Predict the 3D structure of the following.
Amino acid sequence: MMLSTLRRSIATLLVGLAIAGATPAWSQSAMLDCPMRDDVLSIDSPLVDVLLNPAGLALLEGDQPGRFANGPPRFTGTQAPTFAAILTVRMAARLTGVSDERLTEIDPLLRAIPITDEFRAARCARYDNDVPTFTLPEGRPRLLLFEKIVGFRDDPSVDAAHAAFIAMAERNGWAIASTDRAGAINPATLAQFDAVIWNNISGDVLTLSQRKALQDYVEGGGGFVAIHGSAGDPVYFWDWYADTLIGARFLAHPMDPQFQDARVVVHGDHPIAAHLPSGGWMMNEEWYSFRSNPRSVGAQVVLSLDESSYSPVGPGGIDLRMGDHPLAWTHCVGRGRSFYSAIGHRPELYADANHLELLQSAIQWATAQPNRCGS
């Protein structure tokens, strides 16, 4: 999911509409350690949290009752997956034409809303602690394919990636298990695996204890592989994930057209690039730009993008050129190995030989034992 897609869709579909009702659609089961459980509401809160709160929703509607009613559930719903989980109130308001002056007015009013136990339960219901059980063979790389999505879910790309990883594991003799339950992210379960693969994950999906489990796992030597939408949200509420584990935050991608041919540049000094075409290749994809260069966190770039080969113009004419434009990279996180590739929106790419070689080599690099990060 990309902010530019959201901007166009919300601006055309939702101005003057409102969320139907104030009853939370997510389960009411309490999750005691969910992020932001006790935080006051503000214009920098996740939009979904305000929509889940009757007083917050009333403030957003203001003197236009029904401002967001009848909006498409994928954008303004309170049931996952929803764009409302990956936007702040500030971002959503600006996209729908709410003035900065109005934002300034409602921010202190949002902050004054009491945080009740009922609201805490509604706020935490998008998280889970369902712990799956896996039986895995010994003596081969073991992979956890993680697929919980609460923000934007593009079914064709998620499903194509899932099938590609399962088939890749079968060809290589890897043991692989998949789940959309965040309860799998705990120390005991993670200890069974050599690497975790995040398949286009969007939205804040882990409780505080699950966040700690993933951070401890990677920093202690576990492998991490993430693709495309796993770094494509317009806002993140977990700084360690975006700034350390991934190493860069999404900015935008072109929209006119959204998918373009461009030349992928291969950096042959990385072992992941050993079997990729040394001269690079042309590919049709949705090309991400990032707010910062992952080299700033010590990343080693595997692929970059030739910005002269496509039109790097974003929504509203924004210049998306990065100069040095990393597309796939690795870096050390503690003793663990992290890999991210921005390729992967178009489902057809999960049958592309070069893309599959990239992902296969990335998994082999991430699971290398002994895990001497940087080697």
Q: What stands out?
A: The mean pLDDT is 89. The CA atoms of residues 94 and 338 lie 35 Å apart. The radius of gyration is 21 Å. The first strand starts at residue 142 and ends at 146.
